[in-house]
Amino acid sequence: MARAEDAGASNGWRTRFFGTTSTADEAIRGHAGLLARPTYRRLLQAEPYLRRSIPALIAVFLIITAIARTSGLIDRRMEIETAAGDMLALTAQTLDIALSQSAPDSPGPDYHLQVRDALAAALPPLAAPRGATIVFADPAGTMVTSVPPSPGLTGRALDDLFGNGQPLTTFGASAGVMDVMLADGTQVFATVHNLAGDRGSVAVYQTKDDVFATWHRDVSVNISLFIGTSCILIVIVYAYFMQTSRAREADQLYAQTQYRVDTALRRGRCGLWDWDLARGRLFWSPSMYVILGMEPNSELMGFGDLQGMIHPEDADLYALARDLLESGQASVDLSFRIRHAEGHWLWVRARAEIVRDRDGTPHLIGIAVDETEQRRLLEQTETADLRLRDAIETISEAFVLWDTENRLVMCNSKYQSLYGLPDPLTRAGTPYEAVMEAGTQPVVQSHVKTTSQSAPQTEDGARSFEAQLRDGRWLQINERRTKDGGFVSVGTDITELKLHEERLLDSERRLMATVTDLRQSRQKLQAQTQQLVELADKYAEEKTRAESANRSKSEFLASMSHELRTPLNAIIGFSEVMRSGIFGTLGSIKYDEYCRDIHESGTYLLNVISDILDMSKIEAGRVNLTLESVDFDDVISESAR
């Protein structure tokens, strides 16, 4: 039951701190992250294209706005023109109806006043368009009065105002409202109506400047707004590109900094950790993946995955997180083994401290260093230290090493036995004075020269001396300074060398006496040597004469042999011719026997001469011996003969 409660508590704790059952807010944020992350990545991918398209989009926007406003202004102008024409036609039609009834039939004494009164009565208040001019002409076409009054028009012909042959004066109301140019060059919209009963005509015209005055103001306002909007957009685009340029430079600086940090982490064989204790997620820097031989991954690592990579005997992350959160400990420093991608274990030392987010979520942030090589070097150092101690212990000399403060570092048993030191004084850190006071000091000391032809100068502080112990043994002690300021001392037992030295001195004395005897013997030998030299000279002369006689003999034998071979060749040749009967028979059997005897004797004599020549070659050393098989019977018969 207790185990069940413990398990429930443990699961509840893990749920509380590692987020296996997250709140609704965390779930929503997690789902939003899942949805927003791909969109954000796509936005990052499309960001360069969007940034490049902004000037084009703004230009398109300005062009569309300009076209729309231009089209609106053109439509507005047409509406104003149409409205002005309608207003002029309506005014002229109203005056035509009214004046056709009230205007005088023919000119009289008060014709001018009557026309003006009739025109004033026929024109409603504020009925005339702004800036419009109304002219009344008598049946003869002479302008009588105008509204507003204009002395320059009265008394002039209507054709002088609009020009001769103008459709307005010819066709009247049928011509409608027309765009015409007055005699003074003013562009106007005008219409002319002929009154009924031949009472004259009425003309209404309005200048274009008055008609389009409002439109011109609208054009000016729209142009000003367009230019202002364009300038504002250009400034915004400039500011945007300046901001993006700064952001790009910041990104490049961040990328360079990140690259330098990653390079430093990779070279230093270390990585950054960010462990979200509440959600059980862990962020690793790319260098950590490199250390473990894994492909770098930007995704967060699950807590269970990390626990599965750590050696079960080294660390329990669940217990570590629980202790950190329950005890309030702010930092952690531990070493553990973690599995490499290739299967072997790496030693990692992690140092981190707890940092809380704005919402209070605890994060364990720190650094992890690969110390596999350091541990291997430490093991090798310990092994080398043990081997060094064993080696120092096994050497036949007394060895002792002191540090820079003259404290004992190590010594072997030979040193301890020679000086009679107790075990407590052989421990590391014992002062030099304490060792010297407790140890047995030598009776006799004599310094030894340490310089030689191979080493003309000794190191600073180096010395060698011989010391005799109380038991009669002799030691040669060599002391040398170490690089760190300490010194090492090696004592060699030279008792045998001392005894040998005494024997050598005795032998030297006997040798000196022997040398004296040898000097006397040498004088006798020199006299005998002189005699031998004289005998050798005589022997050389006799040898030279013998060799000369021998050469003369050899030359004589060689010359004689050559002289004998010539007639023997003729004798042997002619005897062979006579035996073969080339030129006929000899006539008697005895001749054949004589020829055979001559041939055999000549051949024998030739062989003898050849042997003599061979002897000459043997004496000259120019004969090459070869092994051949012979018939022993022939040898015996030849020898017997």
Automatic annotation (TrEMBL):
List, in alphabetical order, the Gene Ontology terms for molecular function in this entry: histidine phosphotransfer kinase activity; phosphorelay sensor kinase activity
Domain PAC: from-to ranges: 332-383
* UniProt KW Kinase keyword: yes
- Keyword list, A-Z: Coiled coil, Kinase, Membrane, Transferase, Transmembrane, Transmembrane helix
Q: What is its EC number?
A: 2.7.13.3
Q: Which domain of life is it from?
A: Bacteria
Q: Which residues cross the membrane?
A: 49-68, 223-241
Coiled-coil positions: 518-552
Gene Ontology CC annotations of this record: plasma membrane
Q: Enumerate the spans annotated as Histidine kinase domain.
A: 559-641
* Gene3D superfamilies from the UniProt entry: 1.10.287.130, PAS domain
Note the InterPro entries from the entry.
His_kinase_dom, HisK_dim/P_dom, HisK_dim/P_sf, PAC, PAS, PAS-assoc_C, PAS-like_dom_sf, PAS_fold_3
Catalytic reaction annotation: ATP + protein L-histidine = ADP + protein N-phospho-L-histidine
Pfam families per the UniProt record, alphabetical: HisKA, PAS_3, PAS_7
Q: Does the keyword Secreted apply?
A: no
| PANTHER family the record matches | OSMOSENSING HISTIDINE PROTEIN KINASE SLN1, TWO-COMPONENT HISTIDINE PROTEIN KINASE
**What is the protein's name according to its record?**
histidine kinase
What lineage, starting at the top, does this entry show? Bacteria, Pseudomonadati, Pseudomonadota, Alphaproteobacteria, Hyphomicrobiales
Q: What gene name is given for the protein in this entry?
A: pleC_2
